[in-house]
Amino acid sequence: MKGKATSFDIAHYAGVSQSTVSRALRNSHLVNEETRKRVFDIAKKLNYKVDKNASNLRTQQSSTLALLLFEDPTSDESQINPFFLAMLGSITRACAKEGYDLLVSFQSASADWQADYEDSHRADGIILLGYGDYIDYQPKFNTLLEQNTKFVCWGATVDNRPDLTVCCDNYGGGKLAAEHFIAHSRTDCAFIGDASDHSPEFFSRFQGFKDELLANNVKINERKMANAISTEESGYHATRSLIANNIKFNALFAASDLIAIGAIRALKEANINVPKDVAVVGFDNIAIASYVNPPLTTIEQNTTVAGQMLVENLLKLIRGEEVQSTLLAPILIPRRSS
Amino acid sequence: MKGKATSFDIAHYAGVSQSTVSRALRNSHLVNEETRKRVFDIAKKLNYKVDKNASNLRTQQSSTLALLLFEDPTSDESQINPFFLAMLGSITRACAKEGYDLLVSFQSASADWQADYEDSHRADGIILLGYGDYIDYQPKFNTLLEQNTKFVCWGATVDNRPDLTVCCDNYGGGKLAAEHFIAHSRTDCAFIGDASDHSPEFFSRFQGFKDELLANNVKINERKMANAISTEESGYHATRSLIANNIKFNALFAASDLIAIGAIRALKEANINVPKDVAVVGFDNIAIASYVNPPLTTIEQNTTVAGQMLVENLLKLIRGEEVQSTLLAPILIPRRSS
DNA sequence: TAAATTCATGACACCGGTGTCATAATGTCA
DNA sequence: TGACATTATGACACCGGTGTCATGAATTTA
């Protein structure tokens, strides 16, 4: 045998037509049991595998999903946000379970990514994953919708299409953090993240946090808030600036674990004890969170379930079934940092 | 327009043949500049994308690499080993840089994975990634070789084909750890990992460690060794069993960071101070390592370079170029655990 | 026993590109 | 000006499957 075996080779050896081979291999009931067995045996012997390109071309589908990972433009090449890495893992697993392959691709938010994968028939649908300034994406979402591209996204909401989003109940998560502080009588709260609506996820977390505090007659002082993106560095610097401005607080809610870890570093450097002087709560429950010193109290987003939901919903869209918006319940994981 | 635009549609609007459209879009010099421009404009307007399935089918290649991730069968669904997650990130980046897509797939070591992706023309080559009992894989490697499948692998060596492997100089890394202990006069050493040759990487690390100690007239006591696979749990239990058997040591080399982290937990529980009573050194330098308490001294494997090398070498193989075996130099990252 | 139904299979167009060969038009050189 | 090279394009087979329609044999029904 020179190249790879094709269905014609099998047909030749089995003494049947290529059509029959194709049918046999796909377990069509239209083929005689005996013939099927002969075809299978020969296929196995020749190490035959269906050519996906030919098959996909004909059927106009690919059994493949594409995952586009948007990174904070700031986070240079060094490290990928561990939360997304965890999501990637669970999405990969969920795809495998459904018999789909997963194409992974990093994207910068600005690039001309919309529908590339789906238009070129490399994937049946797209999963969008990333923090970041999703508002800029809306026009791209619209392009995707216009072209009838199947996609779901994590976190960001698509105008008029809540069903395309899977996300954690960030508002509820923020409330959990506030409840926790109040239960421990830590009412002089600081917040680090982005309280503007640039980053809708951080914004919701802050809103929930603020509202729950207000419900308990605690007001958060605007001076006790600092902006940060989701990196350890950013959290560190934001916290340092609060300290440098001599701003006092006994509780700190960080919009993500990485920010919280940076914050703890800054607090330690300033000889502020965590949790004695300041209780810290993060968000995400990344793997690192339980290993830092002190172990970080955080609001968990269940990445396993999240990945599954994204894949399941996307497959439903592809199959033309109805999908509902999915809000995942966050859980408070108390550890020693608070 | 009903469905997606094809090159025939463009040909129609541009008033040329479909052949010319195809040539124009691929920047063939055989096509007139003016015609090319017209074709490009129309393609843009129609939101045309080359159908990858058709193109791949004809050219018999896919511009895609497949990454097969083998997991320790023991590590249940919960978490993926962070070291491999980091590798996955760097491989994804390296692929993007080379204009290749990446298909990611989890595999159990036992499954019938060989060549699935390449045979079915979904990928031009395969990257194999995983710790684990690579010895069992040799027959599968042979199958791959026989079928002339292009692949590279991390860590494991393929008989007679050193060029297919990219790995860290595990032996040299083990020596670094030993040097470090000797420099700090910690010569009563324990080792946790797998000192048998089931896991060739762990084995090499241990060999380097042992040989360097011997070169300094230090002998490692067999009783001070315990087996573990690369999980925190496993490291924890292995260390506990040493402690339970009342075995004393003042230095501990763990074959991976996860093991080291588990070991530190066990030591702490037994009121053994790290690094005062026992100095601990790990291997990998995963992200968590710098956050644990105390921060973990470890032997770094540069995942960014590793990912790049894997991709570059695989592409060379695919292009039929010559490839040499690649040993990456490990670096000792001293932190407070030693 | 003729007609209808079921079963198993083959022939063939088709998916949407790419590569080869043929062809026409224009330019170049002896 | 005839021979030859160059440039731009079209026609067409082909990649390896899948889906439809036609066909013939075996079986059931009227």
From TrEMBL, chains A, B:
Coiled-coil portions: none
Family annotation (InterPro entries): HTH_LacI (IPR000843), LacI/GalR-like_sensor (IPR046335), Lambda_DNA-bd_dom_sf (IPR010982), Peripla_BP_I (IPR028082)
Domain HTH lacI-type as annotated: residue spans: 5-59
SUPFAM superfamilies: lambda repressor-like DNA-binding domains (SSF47413), Periplasmic binding protein-like I (SSF53822)
An MF annotation (GO) of this entry: transcription cis-regulatory region binding
Keyword line: DNA-binding, Transcription, Transcription regulation
Protein's recorded name: HTH lacI-type domain-containing protein
Biological source species: marine sediment metagenome
